[in-house]
Amino acid sequence: MNISNQTDRTSRTRLFSPDSAHWYRRDGVPLHTVRSAKGDPRATTLRDARKLSLLPSVTNVLGVIAKPELTAWLQEQAVLAALTLPRHAGEAEDVFAKRVVADSLTTRDGAADFGTAFHHGAERVARSLEVDPTEALAPWLSLYRDWFQANCVRLLWTEQVLVNAELGYAGTADLLIEHQAHGLTLVDLKTQGVKAASGPSTYKSWGYQLAAYRRALGQPVTCLNLIVNSREPHPPVEAPWSEAELERCWVAFEAALTLWRVEKNFDPRVQRPEVGGQRSELAA
């Protein structure tokens, strides 16, 4: 009986919370947070997006596509955490379960933190060529600067919001440059723990993302991922996408967008009349 009660209590405990989705106003202004009734910033929800006629980010849309490799990896991390995390005396099962989940996500969150910090540093390099020698990622950013100086003939922009209001999505692209070999090129930075034996990996979802950005940009540009090894400083590796691949990737993204509208019961192509031309109260 005790076991049954504990199991019931644990099953009612929400262990995994979905990551906050990113949203944009139709003029391209990010609206990832809004003000709560108490005036505090909180994550923008699907309900807010419906009310304010917001556009989902590209990664928000791609969230409807199953990622079995990522799911399997997260499950492995959870099992390892459950096997290795010490149990506190008298600790309730739901409390221990939450600690297991938190511990299992430290590797993922650490990788995300590296990626965020690298993107910030890469934006600074693109704008000024400056690398702070005191920061932890200086060795990686110095190598990125080497790549940038060797390949960027002209910088058009970095960290630019792209909006496709006609199809109902938006997103922030990393870099548009005149590349010394590829011409006008849309670059998306990816950080990855590269294994020496196998080298960097690319994923179809990366192509879906770039195809969506390119359609929103509305220009015939080359698309490439620039892969940065987060395990150790190493020169970035270019992974360009062919036109045939990008055509297939666009078909896939458009299918995901259709599924997203059905799953969310929300068509962001349709703007609520009362929202047009009005500015909402935003969180800073």
Structure write-up:
The structure is a single chain. This protein has a domain at 137-264: Lambda Exonuclease, Chain A, CATH 3.90.320.10. The chain is built from nine helices and nine strands. The chain has helices at residues 2-12, 46-52, 58-62, 68-84, 93-104, 106-128, 138-151, 204-217, 243-264; strands at 23-24, 33-35, 41-43, 55-56, 152-164, 169-179, 183-192, 222-229, 237-241. The strands form three sheets. A five-stranded mixed sheet has the order 5-6-7-8-9, with helices on both faces. The longest helix has 23 residues, at 106-128. The N and C termini lie far apart (50 Å).
Quick rundown:
With 284 residues, this protein is of the alpha+beta class.
Q: Classify the secondary structure makeup into a structural class.
A: alpha+beta
Q: Output the CATH class name of the domain at 137-264.
A: Alpha Beta
What separation lies between the terminal Cα atoms? Answer: 50 Å
The low-confidence parts are 1-13, 277-284
Please state the overall shape, judged from the principal axes of the Cα atoms.
globular
In percent, how helical is the residue content?
40-55%
Q: Which architecture of the domain at 137-264 does the CATH hierarchy give at level 2?
A: Alpha-Beta Complex
- CATH topology label of the domain at 137-264: Lambda Exonuclease, Chain A
Q: Please count the beta strands (DSSP E, at least 2 residues each).
A: 9
Order of secondary-structure elements: HEEEHEHHHHHEEEHEEH
What is the strand arrangement across the widest sheet?
5-6-7-8-9
User: How large a portion of the residues is in β-strands, by DSSP E?
Assistant: 15-25%
